[in-house]
Design brief:
The protein has a domain of 41 residues. The protein is 37% helix and 15% strand. The chain is built from two helices and three strands. It has a three-stranded antiparallel beta sheet with strand order 1-2-3. The longest helix is centred in the first third of the chain and has 19 residues.
């Protein structure tokens, strides 16, 4: 019984583990937002999620009457985005 059970379990494990390593074949999530090459009219968007409760890292500030999130983390994110 053990001689049959072990190969069956190993085969099942190989099948399950190979399904975990598949790559997506439809769409490219890292592709630019623009579909035409050289089209500079569209910009890519980077979304930053934060909890703006911890000054000086990130906090709310009224700038020109608009609630804006500012701080160290926001400036670092802007620098990274500009470098990309």
């Amino acid at each position: 019984m053990k001689r049959i059970l072990l190969p069956v379990l190993l085969s099942l494990m190989v099948v399950i583990m190979s399904a975990c390593g598949q790559e997506r074949t439809t769409g490219n999530p890292s592709a630019p937002a623009s579909t035409a090459e050289g089209d500079a009219t569209e910009k890519e968007v980077i979304v930053l999620g934060t909890s703006a409760d911890y000054a000086p890292y990130e906090f709310h500030k009224s700038i020109d009457g608009k609630d804006t999130i500012v701080g160290f983390d926001i400036e670092i994110a802007k620098a990274i985005a500009a470098d990309m």
